[in-house]
Amino acid sequence: MRNTTKPASKVHSRKSEHPRALQELVRAAGLRSTSARIAVLGYFHRHGGTSSHAELFTALADQGLDRATVYRVLMDLSEVGILSRTDLGDHVWRFELKSGLEGAGHEGGHPHFVCVDCGEVSCLPGLSLKLEGAGRAPKSVGSNDVTVQLKGRCDNCV
């Protein structure tokens, strides 16, 4: 359930994942720079793409973080706009570095592809969609403040 897109931070590109740069990013968002926040943010900088709470907990298990701490960190980073949080219809929140940040290899406003067989989630950053005729649609549609997802069978499941 991993994709290959590469994220970036507001101040630093993926090349700059030094703990000090991550600390600056967290502090600039108004949060205290804790080891748990730096571990979670470092994971996203190294691996990119989307991750669920369970995936992140498993990946960071060797750092001694419990499930509740990982969850709180994900929520904190989402609330201040460092991470985005998306439910792709399977009732599992997936998190990724917020799109549209400086130096982003992870382009803003992209849809996701969800395989209906294996559940793999992939970002589709090169795909653009144009919304037309949104006359009676909610205002968020007109302002492009929506999430688009495509469902089907991935190449491995076809």
Structural overview:
There is one protein chain. The chain contains five helices and six strands. With 158 residues, it is α+β, with helices and mostly antiparallel strands. It has one domain: Arc Repressor Mutant, subunit A. It has a three-stranded antiparallel β-sheet. The chain has a three-stranded mixed β-sheet with strand order 5-4-6, with no helix packed on it. The N terminus is likely disordered.
Please name the CATH topology: Arc Repressor Mutant, subunit A
Head-to-tail CA distance between termini: 16 Å
**What's the CATH superfamily, by name?**
Winged helix-like DNA-binding domain superfamily/Winged helix DNA-binding domain
* CATH C-level name: Mainly Alpha
Low-confidence stretches: 1-16, 100-107
**What characteristic shape results from the CA principal axes?**
globular
Biggest β-sheet description = 3 strands, antiparallel
CATH architecture: Orthogonal Bundle
> How much helix is in the residues?
25-40%
Order of helices and strands: HHEHHEEEEHE
Strand order of the biggest β-sheet = 1-3-2
User: What's the total count of β strands?
Assistant: 6
Structural class: alpha+beta
Percent strand equals 5-15%
Number of domains: 1
* Rg, Å, rounded: 16 Å
Q: Give the mean pLDDT.
A: 77
Determine the number of helices (DSSP H or I, runs of at least 4 residues): 5
